[in-house]
Write a structure and sequence with these properties.
It is a single chain. The chain has 192 residues and is of the alpha+beta class. It has helices at 2-25, 74-85, 108-119, 138-144, 146-149, 184-191, and strands spanning 41-43, 49-51, 59-65, 90-96, 162-165, 171-175. It has a single domain, classed as Glutaredoxin. Helix 2 links the parallel strand 3 (59-65) and strand 4. The radius of gyration is 25 Å and the shape is globular.
Length: 192
């Protein structure tokens, strides 16, 4: 009887050890905390630090721009909407990028001059970055990866894709490049 009890106990401990070993081999799901835009500091076109934390409490539209694109005239509407709502808690932040058909080949200085002379751009324009690929900037990694933004995975399709960020710094919507900033879905969001 004593031998049977020892065998049962030994078998129990062997099974328990195997279960524990198998459990420890299973990959653990990493729970990522939802991030927000306020963690980022970037450089603007003039080389000054731009801290997204300075925009707390505002609605933000982030848009990748280009000077030689068929969509470049969107600068006009972007500037008009920015002027109309900038004193009502809304800001547009532009990120020039040369990822699509080399349509933003200029230097930061050339981009700044182009935007000012042709469209009178006064909304903040950042240093030229990459918005896709292996050299994607950190802000766009946040905007395009659900594991970071908590909303959705997306890919920047072309120049002038828009990302809407709420007053808490959270991504709430991705707007296609050809959708104008003057469309009701955008204006209604700004006003809400």
């Amino acid at each position: 009887m004593k031998n049977i009890a020892i065998l049962v106990c030994s078998a129990f401990f062997m099974i328990a050890s195997q279960v524990q070993a198998q459990t420890s081999l299973k990959p653990k799901k990493e729970i990522m905390a939802k991030q927000n835009i306020y963690q980022f500091k970037v450089e603007d076109l003039s080389g000054k630090t731009f801290d997204f934390a300075s925009l707390k409490g505002k609605k933000i539209m982030i848009v990748n721009t280009a000077s030689k694109c068929g969509l470049t005239p969107q600068y006009k509407d972007l500037e008009a909407v920015y002027k109309e709502y900038k004193d009502k808690g809304f800001v547009i932040v532009g990120f020039p990028a040369n990822n699509f058909a080399s349509q933003e080949p200029g230097t930061n200085e050339e981009i700044a001059t182009f935007c000012q002379l042709n469209y009178g751009v006064t909304f903040p324009m950042m240093d030229k970055v990459s918005v896709k690929g292996d050299d994607m900037c950190e802000v766009y990694k946040f905007l395009t990866q659900k594991s970071k933004n908590g909303l959705q995975d997306s890919e920047v399709e072309w120049n002038f894709q828009k990302y809407l960020i709420n007053e808490k710094g959270e991504l709430v919507k991705v707007i296609k490049p050809k959708t104008l900033v003057t469309e009701p879905e955008v204006i209604n969001w700004i006003k809400s």
